[in-house]
Structures are given as structure tokens and as C-alpha cells.
Design goal:
CATH class of one domain: Mainly Beta
Helix content: 25-40%
Distance between the termini: 110 Å
Oligomer: single chain
Largest sheet: 6 strands, antiparallel, barrel
Number of strands: 20
Shape: globular
CATH architecture of one domain: Roll
Radius of gyration: 30 Å
Strand content: 15-25%
């Protein structure tokens, strides 16, 4: 009789328990079995024998193929897929396994099978875009999508030396050239490009029509070892004044040393400065530009839409127009065109844009422009009279908050909440402005241009009035 084995690898452990190898891998990765106690990937016989085989077998669901897992993660990024975010591939699932975010259950290491429950938990994480940028490299085509530019423009970015490959992969293109070495680029480097190159008009680059020469084609590449920045550009990158950067140099001994220039105008290595700014939380990695969310009135009820990369321009004059430009899909652009095609345009019940308070417009919202760039993106521009814009109600249905300015002024019986403009937000039970009072008031959008003018005038009048003794 042969000597019994004293330790087992994952295949030997699975065979001893009579369970699939994928089940043992999941049990080991999820903590259902003790950590390997006989060396890397090796378990002692006592540890294997003490394991509940039925529990290990029951814990395995699936497994899910890499392609299916990639589709699930793509859906989790948003439907439709956000602009500047390429689809997740089966190879990306392999990189997530290497990063320890998923457990390899079987299949090829480059495109592994994974556990559906663990995949679902990863898909629910709010930092999923940041995790993909950190752990999944992009090929040139995907990198162009991540940056939001045409492939020809991305090739110019590489030519200029603004980004370098983080690795490579061999791909068999068969009849189109056989095995080819394809460079891979870091998602973090791609996300930081617009931050670290503030002198480039990235919005203009992302809107170059198809067939046009790249705006970057006339620029000279960075000389090796000479990708440098001055203090003023460091300040622009960090969004601070030059004096703040001078203060950082004085206070932090680890601030990068100059690599050239003069005492008055020192030059610093761009990558070294970027690393220092990141390490000291002076800049953030922009994993995803927050979208704009719209709630519009539709013939069949409220319609919700998402617009990516929004740019909101609010007019100061009531005679002018506000404009919102953003990227969208064919279907959503068609929906916007239908909703705004009427004589009086559409009603915008709520618009949330990063950096601005939620607003609403009771009508006359129109689609004034559709533009398709060279990389296939579709940009829409909406406009509406600035005088109609106001703060959005926090109710689920949204709508403009209206302020009523009573011609006779508020009396003691008024139970409404007064506003800085001098108006009120009526409540139904108010004896002066309620539903049964039929008050004579001037209505205007709360938080709009008229409201701000009234509040400013009242404040100026109060400041100039003699104090009551």
C-alpha cells in the first residue's frame, strides 16, 4: 500500500473531496476553506479532510464565462454606455482576476470563468469606473474611446510622447497580418491626460468632424527627458494660484526638484509633479465625468434622459437664452427631437448638472443643434429663454418653484414662507394667499433672473434705509 499524500494542490484537494476544481477555487478565494497551510497553493491533508465537501459544492454557482461577465459589467457602467467609457471585454475580466477583485474558477487565464455572485457584487460598486481605470489596460482603439477622440487624434497623442504604453499583448489578426504586438495603455494615464495637459482644448479635439486633419498634427513631439512644466502650469493643473505652488515647494521637502530653467523660472518634470500632486491629494483621477439628468414632460408621462459631458451656459440677461450642450445616443436624440418639436417646445421639470443647483423650465425648451464628431459621438444642444428658468422643486415630479409677489404686501395673517425677493411660496391654508383667497400676486420663477434682481434691489434698499431706533 502506497504512502498517503500529506499535501494537495487545488486539483488534488478537489479530487480528494470529489468536487469540481472550480468549486474548490471559489471556496479558497471566498474563505470557505482555510488558507493554504502547506506552502503557496498547497493544503495539508488534515485541512482538506476537515473541509465540508457538500458546503464547497453548494457554494459554487455558475460559473459565468468571461464574455458574459464582461457584458454584465458593461451594463453596470450605465445604459446607454457613458461617453468616454469603452465596453468591458473578456480580457478585462482576466485583468480583474489578476487584481484580486474576482476569483478564477476555470477557463483560460486571459479570459477566465468567474462566480456570478461575486461578479454581481463587483458590478454594484460605485467605484467600478475607477477600478477599471486602475486595473484594466486599453488597446489603442479603446484608449481613443476612453479619451473621447478619434483614433487618428489618439495616434497623435502617442506620437507627441504625451502617453507611453504600460504593456503589450500579442494578438493574432490572422489574414490581416498574423500575430501582432499591440501596445496597452493605462486607464489612469488616459484619465489624467486632460488634467496634465491643460493647454490643450480637449473639448475642441473631441468635436473634430470625420475626415479633418488632426489639430495635434502640427505640434512637435516632446524631447526625451524634456516634458517639463513651469510653476504657473503646475498651478493650472492643480487649480490653484502660483503662490500656492511656491508655498508647497517651501513647506514640503519631497516636492520634486527642478530639472532645468532658472531660479526665477524653474522647470519640473511633468510626471514627477503629477505623482506628487496625486500623492498629496492636490488633484484627483477623473474616472468619469458626472452626467446631466433630465426629467421632461412627455405625451405618455415624464421622460428621464441622461446626457454625458454636459456644458451648461446660463445667461445673466432675461432677454437672452440658456444653453445646454452634451453627448447622447441616437435613440435619446430622437426622443429629445420629438419632445421639443411642438409649438411651445418642451417643459423641463428638472435638470441636474454637476456644479449647479437643480433647475426647471416650464416650457419653450428647444433642440437647436445636432452634431456628430469624427469618432461617432452625437452632441445635442438645448436652449430656452433665460427668463423662464427657475429652481426645481424637490418633489419627485419636479417643476419650477414659483414665488408670488403680493401687490398689497404681506399681512399679519399670512402663513406663507417669505423669500429674499419679497415674494412668498403660498400654502393652501394661508388666509391671504391660499387656495380660497385668490390673491393678486405677480408670479416669477423662484431662483431665476427676476427673483435674483428683486432680492438684490431689496438688499440694496435695506442697506441704504435709516435704522429704526
Amino acid at each position: 500500500m502506497g504512502k498517503q499524500r500529506e499535501f494537495y494542490d487545488e486539483q488534488g484537494a478537489a479530487g480528494r473531496l470529489g468536487v469540481p476544481v472550480a468549486a474548490w477555487r471559489w471556496a479558497a478565494g471566498s474563505g470557505l476553506v482555510p488558507p493554504a497551510d502547506a506552502g503557496p497553493g498547497q493544503w495539508s491533508r488534515s485541512a482538506v479532510d476537515a473541509t465540508d465537501a457538500e458546503g464547497v459544492r453548494a457554494a459554487l454557482r455558475g460559473p459565468m464565462a468571461a464574455g458574459q461577465a464582461a457584458d454584465r459589467l458593461t451594463e453596470a457602467l450605465g445604459q446607454p454606455l457613458p461617453r468616454c467609457r469603452p465596453r468591458v471585454t473578456a480580457a478585462a475580466v482576466g485583468h480583474l482576476v489578476k487584481a484580486g477583485l474576482l476569483v478564477w474558477l476555470g477557463g483560460e487565464a486571459a479570459c477566465p470563468d468567474v462566480h456570478p455572485d461575486q461578479l454581481a457584487a463587483l458590478a454594484r460598486r460605485r467605484d467600478l469606473p475607477a477600478l477599471l481605470d486602475r486595473h484594466v489596460p486599453f488597446g489603442p482603439d479603446q484608449a481613443a474611446v476612453r479619451l473621447g477622440v478619434r483614433r487618428v487624434d489618439y495616434d497623435q497623442v502617442v506620437r507627441l510622447g504625451w502617453i507611453s504604453p504600460a504593456g503589450s499583448v500579442m494578438i493574432d489578426y490572422k489574414s490581416h497580418g498574423g500575430w501582432t504586438k499591440v501596445p496597452l495603455y493605462s486607464g489612469v494615464d488616459l484619465a489624467l491626460l486632460p488634467v496634465l495637459r491643460p493647454g490643450v482644448d480637449w473639448e475642441a479635439l473631441r468635436t473634430v468632424p470625420a475626415g479633418r486633419r488632426s489639430p495635434l498634427a502640427g505640434l512637435a513631439p516632446v524631447a526625451p527627458g524634456r516634458d517639463v512644466v513651469l510653476l504657473a502650469e503646475v498651478a493650472t493643473i492643480a487649480g490653484v494660484g502660483r503662490a500656492a505652488v511656491v508655498n508647497w515647494r517651501r513647506r514640503h521637502a519631497d516636492f520634486p526638484a527642478p530639472v532645468g530653467g532658472s531660479d526665477i523660472h524653474p522647470e519640473f518634470d511633468r510626471s514627477a509633479v503629477a505623482s506628487w500632486l496625486l500623492d498629496h491629494d492636490k488633484i484627483k483621477i477623473p474616472s468619469q465625468i458626472p452626467p446631466a439628468m433630465l426629467l421632461l414632460d412627455g405625451p405618455e408621462g415624464p421622460t428621464r434622459l441622461r446626457l454625458d459631458g454636459p456644458r451648461l451656459l446660463l445667461a445673466d440677461d432675461a432677454e437672452d437664452e440658456d444653453q445646454l450642450s452634451a453627448w447622447t445616443t441616437e435613440d435619446d436624440a430622437d426622443t429629445l427631437a420629438k419632445l421639443t418639436a411642438g409649438e411651445f417646445g418642451a417643459s423641463l421639470r428638472r435638470l441636474t448638472v454637476p456644479g449647479a443647483a437643480p433647475l426647471a423650465v416650464p416650457g419653450e425648451v428647444r433642440l437647436i443643434d445636432l452634431f456628430r464628431n469624427g469618432s461617432g459621438g452625437l452632441k445635442v444642444t438645448l436652449a430656452w429663454p433665460a427668463a423662464l428658468r427657475g429652481a426645481a422643486s424637490d418633489r419627485q415630479a419636479g417643476g419650477v418653484v414659483r414665488h408670488g409677489l403680493a401687490y398689497a404686501g404681506r399681512g399679519k395673517a399670512c402663513g406663507c414662507k417669505g423669500q429674499a425677493c419679497g415674494g412668498v411660496i403660498p400654502v393652501p391654508w394661508c388666509e391671504e394667499h391660499g387656495a380660497s383667497a385668490e390673491p393678486a400676486v405677480e408670479w416669477h420663477p423662484g431662483g431665476g433672473i427676476r427673483c435674483a434682481d428683486l432680492a438684490r434691489n431689496r438688499s440694496a434698499a435695506a442697506a441704504g434705509a435709516p435704522s429704526e431706533v
